[in-house]
Amino acid sequence: MSINAIVLAAGQGTRMKSQRHKVLHPVCGKPMVRHLLDAQKAAGITRRIVVIGSMGEQVQAALQGEVEFVWQKEQLGTGHAVMQAAPLLENQDGITLICSGDTPLITSESITKLLELHREQGAAATVLTGIVDNPFGYGRIIRGEDGSVLRIVEEKDASPDEKSVREINASTYCFDTRSLAQALKMVTNNNAQGEYYLTDCIDILRRQGKKVAAHCVDDADEILNINDRVQLAMVENILRDKIRLHHMQNGVTLVDPSSTYIDIDIQIGADTIIYPGSMLTGSTVIGSGCEIGPHTRIQNSIIGDGSVVMQSVLLDSTFGSGVNIGPFAYVRPGSTVADKVKIGDFVEIKNSTIGEGTKIPHLAYVGDADVGNGTNIGCGTITVNFDGMAKHRTVVGDNSFIGCNTNLVAPVTVGNDTYVAAGSTITDNVPDGALAIARERQVIKEGYTAKLEARLRERGSKKVRG
């Protein structure tokens, strides 16, 4: 039996006041619609159809190759949106799940339970519901004595008794595919808004004597949808709390959870400590026994076991075990740092490989470089990688010592077991085991200070006389 999903993402989302499509706004590091699609995939749904309209090209670009698309050229209601996908499901047996693309908190577990109940009840349709403290504005679920759904009553049409019902419609539905196709043909736009409503399918099936069931989620937060920036922030806070709870339950210490920001796909090993003000984003993986922060940002990076990162920014890079970074280090994309490396304060690394045990303690820039094992890069060292038109690489071998305030003008290679004298500007390759000195010889002028002061006094007296 095939299980399909239709995701409604054709609305204009005007309340977001954004040039970005509503369902592409990120929630904890992932577009809100992708949260839903991932949950559907985890629940075993392989065919997913996304209905797009306003700014639909953005959704196509973001999800291309993952889903099928149909266009709703005019926004004429939720029923009309599903009608655009109906031709793809004609004459099929199976189940069709229908969800709104702005509900990122629905879990795969809830989708699975919805599908299971639908099968068990032999229902033509099953509605996902939730119980909330304040149901104002939502459609109420009116059940019969056997627990089946008699009707969904909108706020404006509800009687006082119906308004007291706290179980609401989550706008997520499970349909027998053939029953859905038949009901859609009977839906009309004979209402004040002139729109085709998907909920009319529920009424149609019920009048035909077919069973309509409902599954109530355990956590009503799951069914929250996002229409504006306020709701976006609220949903993100809910999900962040769940993410933090997950990591703490798995052996991670968050010194101040409320000031720690962890995206949905982050992996963190046990016995790692995350200090306040830290942000772990993208697809970052943190090993076990690490110390991260305070005030550290790590994006799309891998950090090995037993590493320490203090008050630094690490982007799109890989770090081995036992590294010590910061404070105030900046590692830019494309860098690979081996085990037991020290990257100290005010050091910037970009698109470079740093070998095991190498130390770059402070105030250095290493860009487009390959540095070997056990090398020391002195304070103030700069790899001069850009000639105004192109970038060039610097290579430094194993167990070398680069003195303070050295310029390595790329392309240049410094061999193994070498020394570069402090203050040198190296423009030629340095062979293994050599000492390179590239600076002016020191000159001392005895008595210079007294002569200078005498000239200055004389010059001052002339100005006064003038």
From TrEMBL:
It catalyses: N-acetyl-alpha-D-glucosamine 1-phosphate + UTP + H(+) = UDP-N-acetyl-alpha-D-glucosamine + diphosphate; alpha-D-glucosamine 1-phosphate + acetyl-CoA = N-acetyl-alpha-D-glucosamine 1-phosphate + CoA + H(+). The keyword Magnesium applies. Residues 1-229 are annotated as: Pyrophosphorylase. Binds 1 Mg(2+) ion per subunit. It is found in: Cytoplasm. Residues 5-218 form the Nucleotidyl transferase domain. It holds the Pfam family NTP_transferase. Mg(2+) binds at D102, N227. Gene3D superfamilies: Hexapeptide repeat proteins (2.160.10.10), Spore Coat Polysaccharide Biosynthesis Protein SpsA, Chain A (3.90.550.10). The keyword Metal-binding applies. PROSITE patterns: HEXAPEP_TRANSFERASES. It comes from the Bacteria. Its EC number is 2.7.7.23, 2.3.1.157. Keywords: Acyltransferase, Cell shape, Cell wall biogenesis/degradation, Cytoplasm, Magnesium, Metal-binding, Multifunctional enzyme, Nucleotidyltransferase, Peptidoglycan synthesis, Repeat, Transferase. GO terms for molecular function: glucosamine-1-phosphate N-acetyltransferase activity; UDP-N-acetylglucosamine diphosphorylase activity. UDP-N-acetyl-alpha-D-glucosamine binds at residues 8-11, 22, 72, 77-78, 100-102, 139, 154, 169, 227, 332, 350, 365, 376. Pathway: Nucleotide-sugar biosynthesis; UDP-N-acetyl-alpha-D-glucosamine biosynthesis; N-acetyl-alpha-D-glucosamine 1-phosphate from alpha-D-glucosamine 6-phosphate (route II): step 2/2; Nucleotide-sugar biosynthesis; UDP-N-acetyl-alpha-D-glucosamine biosynthesis; UDP-N-acetyl-alpha-D-glucosamine from N-acetyl-alpha-D-glucosamine 1-phosphate: step 1/1; Bacterial outer membrane biogenesis; LPS lipid A biosynthesis. Acetyl-CoA binds at A422, R439. In the C-terminal section; belongs to the transferase hexapeptide repeat family. In the N-terminal section; belongs to the N-acetylglucosamine-1-phosphate uridyltransferase family. Homotrimer. Catalyzes the last two sequential reactions in the de novo biosynthetic pathway for UDP-N-acetylglucosamine (UDP-GlcNAc). The C-terminal domain catalyzes the transfer of acetyl group from acetyl coenzyme A to glucosamine-1-phosphate (GlcN-1-P) to produce N-acetylglucosamine-1-phosphate (GlcNAc-1-P), which is converted into UDP-GlcNAc by the transfer of uridine 5-monophosphate (from uridine 5-triphosphate), a reaction catalyzed by the N-terminal domain. This is Bifunctional protein GlmU.
